[in-house]
Amino acid sequence: MIPLSWYLSLSFILIGLGAYGMMVKRNLIRILIAAEIMGNGVNIALVAVSIYSPAFSFLGQ
To answer: Among 18, 43, 11, 45, which residue's Cα sits nearest to residue 32?
Structure first.
């Protein structure tokens, strides 16, 4: 299984790239794409933390 630190590293890299893109770019489309990249980084972090939390199980409800 992939360690949690790898997921969080990928997430922080994506958030950083998105923040850089939002600060540097002047085009509205590129700013929206950068915001989407930041959102993807946040989603990866949330899913990774939820999978590695002790309350998570594959047993269903």
So the answer is: 18
Domain count, the chain: 1
* DSSP type of residue 55: T
String of b and e for 19-28 (b: at least 16 CB within 10 Å)?
eebbeeeeee
pTM: 0.85
| Integer Cα distance of 49 and 32 in angstroms | 26
Residues of the chain with pLDDT under 70: 57-61
DSSP letter, residue 53: S
Residue 56 covered by a domain:
no
